[in-house]
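Following the same procedure, sequence and fold were stored together, as reproduced here.

>
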Amino acid sequence: MTLIAQITDLHLRPKGLACYRVSDTNMMAERAVRSLLSLTQQADAIVVTGDLTDRSDPREYAVARELLSRFEVPVFLLPGNHDSSEGMRREMAGYPGIGENRDGKIFYSAMIEGIQLIALDSHLSGHPQGYLGNEQLSWLEAALRKCDAPTIIALHHPPALTGIEHMDNMGLNDAAALEEVLSPHTHVQRILCGHVHRPIVTSFAGKIMTLAPSTGHQVALDLRENSPAMFNFEPAAYFLHSHSEKTGIVTHMAYVENFPGPYHFFADQGVTWPGDEN
């Protein structure tokens, strides 16, 4: 079985500074890394789907390098709207695919235990919305034709609507062009996104699309029209995407924090539950 961990929207800050003055994103990202390193089965790779930093500050990338260096498996990065493609290329140059420069964007493919990962760059400088551009889309089409292995597409901005209006207003501007490229390719089994700071499952171009929650603060769930842009501290989490020939790709959400348990379901296994002594 292949296991790919997805973390997103870390919004790392310079040491000692909080995000939006109240969100200690560095501390929460540290907890997420500890959680990943404590898994009973370690991931074969880590995919970070954007907003690694909050302001693309070199001090934030320094925090990122220190944090991500604890993983002994490949870490794949791609920019979000809070990053910058140039800043990530300059500060994270040692990571797979980051040094490649096409049209000022970072996009690349990699093989992870028989799974093709295609990382796309939806950063649009100076804007919260996303944009891929013709050169990147042409490269994507060629990459999908070249390799028919089970494929995961990763990008920051979701190309489909989520119902959270203020986040949908910051979506992918050329989603229709991406849909045209992806639709014919049945070996694309999953689209991974971040950006919305919530666990969401939907579809796009006939593929399952999953949006991972942030390792830090979450966007408040409000599906009303004209709802305010708010965030809260719902439990942080990340996604684990497992793959085998028997199951295909299956996505699990794992919480960062520890909870009581696990407990056996059946008492005949010689285990009692808390309170049984009464």
User: Anything to note?
Assistant: Residues 2-258 form a domain with the Purple Acid Phosphatase; chain A, domain 2 fold (CATH 3.60.21.10).
